[in-house]
Amino acid sequence: MKKVLLFVLLACLSITSEAKTILSPDGNFKLSVEVVNGVPTYQLNYKNRPVIKRSNLGLDLKEQPDLLTGFAIAAEKESTFDESWNPVWGEVKTIRNHYNELLVTLSQASTSRELLVRFRLFDDGLGFRYEFPEQPNLKYFTLKEEKTEFAMAGDHKTFWIPGDYDTQEYNSVTSKLSEIRGKMKEASTPNVSQKIFSETGVQTPLMMKSPDGLYINIHEAALVDYSCMSLELNDRTLVFESVLTPDAVGDKGYLQTPCTSPWRTIVASDKAADILMSKLILNLNEPTKFEDTSWIKPVKYIGVWWEMITGKSSWAYTDIENVQLDVTDFSKTKPNGKHAANTDHVKRYIDFAAKHGFDAVLVEGWNVGWEDWFGKTKDYVFDFVTPYPDFDVKGLQQYAAANNVKLMMHHETSSSIRNYERHMDEAYQFMVDNGYNSVKSGYVGDIIPRGEHHYGQWMVNHYLHAIKKAADYKIMVNAHEAIRPTGLARTYPNLIGNESARGTEYESFGGNNTDHTTILPFTRLMGGPMDYTPGIFETKVSAYNPANNSFVHSTLARQLALYVTMYSPLQMAADLPETYEKFMDAFQFIKDVAIDWDDTKVLEAEPGDYITYARKAKNSNNWFVGSTCDEDGRTSVVNFDFLDADKKYEAIIYSDAKDAHFETNPQAYEIRKMKVTNKSKLSQHCAPGGGYAISVMEIK
Ligand code: NOJ
Ligand code: CA
């Protein structure tokens, strides 16, 4: 009898395990992992303040017992890792990857299955993922839902966009967590592609600030062969729960052991600047698998693009409707007189690029199919190799090469994935044969096969397939409307850009919020660079198309600042050459600014209000400063103590004039020069919706 009692007692004890805790290397973060009544849980503190209150872990499976309850900790393993690595391109030259790890093996006695959770605690936050080892009782499984919780410790100020399985092209909403539900409807701007999936669902990267000044960011890292995660808030308890993107039949993912989930990431600090400087998401990705990366280079480009976005010219060559690629004979059709991607016009862009030192010229609308490409869910729209009759592929290849400029390919897939994959090898080979080394791809419209979503596992696999295949051809990729980045560019550095948020194009479709670019670095950019396409000097769209009343919610000076504040190894000067020719003094900054960096400092930052960065150009002693603010305007203070003490510099300051205003006087700017050293300080006025840019050039 005694023996039986002892056995029961021991069994009870093993159900509620003791909390296991680890600290970050600097001791500021404390993670505690505990199984409570068979449910695995975690909790995260920063400097003794709760970041994530005790939250459940686990997954619900289809047609199999769940991986949520009945667990006990079977093993725990602690380790430490510390190494530095050099990105192929980036904001800094060297990145330190330093963490304390806790690997917890959970056993579910009733099913004889094991689930592992690997936690990595860095000085800037936590990453954890599920690992599913190969085992007799878990081979193939279908996810009904991942049930990871993030229990927030207060009603934080939150910078969010609505949950949507197909687009992130929303303006951010700033509200308390408890106000998300009430603001969900107004968060949607008129846009056919927006489909909000719940009243409290939001997308990541999600940025929050606690009432006592703790900055918290939730996202994911290394999203591979798994569905993208959104978060759904229980606004009574302030607990977020993960929501995976479903496939066409409602399933959330198909897995085979051994496999892992992506990392769930929580970056936190009492300084906003630390969030922007975090390299946690990159560190949780695998080192690059490419042996040769010499063909991957940052790109500064212009493009035959804004003139179509504003409606001044067209992608299509004719005005005919019901075009079928394999039936319509374009050599016999009448051009509409507005087709921008014609040989002479592209030459004009090449001349401009060559004259001003740009690497590449993007040309959209060069290929047959644009008359009838959108909204009809057509399987076969583009073949990615057939030019319109007025676009001379070979002639332009020669012209670009003679001018030492690359042409940038454009593949609008119209989201017909089957069609793109069918043509992919031929399309990439066409690029190699015709001198193109980078492609802007796009995924506008509903996905074919029908019912799949842009952010589901099936599409996640497609985007990576396209990146890997491009690498076989030494091609760099900039994918629009694709899955938001999760640091995968560490592993596949030919992924030099993504859109995956509301870019400059929306300034022509009704406008972006004035504070948009003070939020994006804290949200979308956490996972990787954005092809935001700044540099619009003619901020009134009606100057190009009288029928379009949109305007850019920014001063001209702030357009310059974005080259520094919106980090990307791919930067476009998006306006038209004839406009830049009117503002050559301001354009000089775009010519001078670097696109690859040895060092980065965040000088001032508050999400939704302002951001000031200083960056040191790669292999150079020159620095570039950029500052942006919201609609209120402000005075920014720069301390130049980041400069070398033994060097002298000339600063060229491109700022808003006193009377500048993003809406009423956007083009009022001033340019002045001054000598600076590491003792200098600057107080700089920023207009409403404004900002400034500074080139800090070493005097040799
Ligand atoms: C949307 C992209 O974001 C834009 O840059 C592109 O011009 C159009 N799709 C057409 O592909
Ligand atoms: Ca887009």
Notes on the protein architecture:
- The protein has 700 residues and is an alpha+beta fold.
- Among the domains are: 17-283, Beta-galactosidase, Chain A, domain 5 (Distorted Sandwich), CATH 2.70.98.10; 507-562 and 596-700, Aldolase class I (TIM Barrel).
- 17% of the residues lie in helices and 33% in strands.
- The protein is built from 13 helices and 36 strands.
- The strands form six sheets. Strands 6, 7, 8, 9, 12, 13, 15, 16, 20 and 21 form a ten-stranded antiparallel sheet that branches.
- Helix 6 (343-356) runs parallel beside helix 7 (393-402) and helix 8 (417-433) packs parallel to helix 9 (457-472).
- The chain is globular and about 70 Å long.
- The termini are far apart.
- Residues 4-14 have low confidence and may be disordered.
- It binds 1-deoxynojirimycin (NOJ) and calcium ion.
- Residues 169, 480-481, 499, 505 line the site of calcium ion.
- The site of calcium ion has 5 residues, from loops.
Short description:
By secondary structure, the protein is an alpha+beta fold.
